[in-house]
Amino acid sequence: MNEVPITHILFVSTALFFIGMYGLFTRRNMITMLMAIELILNSVNINFIAFNKYLYPEKLDGIFFSIFIITIAAAEAAVAIAIIINLYRSHHSIDVEDAGELKY
């Protein structure tokens, strides 16, 4: 069975990372910014799995790090969505610039 070269995997991971960075810096909608952060975290997971497979195939360290990142990303998404819902209820918008005008 032919294996995919690590350069191809790293190219996909790099592309995901820069798509996530572009989405994070150019969007004003909080939900799309949250999805961009998830893309960045998924690119890191791809790197962990690829380097684990090609450098240390007998160990599972990269897989455990990826599972940990997935768990943290799920918790981060739940908290972020709760914050976004709360901001929408108070400001009727999920635009980042509108959230800067919070009234205490």
Descriptive report:
The protein has 104 residues and is mainly alpha-helical. The protein has a single domain, classed as Helix Hairpins (Orthogonal Bundle). 79% of the residues lie in helices and 0% in strands. The radius of gyration is 17 Å and the shape is elongated. The relative contact order is 0.12. The model has no long low-confidence stretch (mean pLDDT 88).
Describe, in short, the structure shown.
The chain is an all-alpha fold. It has 4 helices and no strands. It has one domain: Helix Hairpins.
Question: Layout of SSEs?
Answer:
Layout: H1 6-26, H2 30-55, H3 61-91, H4 96-99
Helix pairs in contact: 1-2, 2-3
CATH class: Mainly Alpha
Q: Biggest sheet: strands, sense, closure?
A: none
Counted up, domains total 1
- Which word captures the global form? elongated
How does CATH name the architecture? Orthogonal Bundle
Uncertain parts: none
Search tags:
0% strand, 104 residues
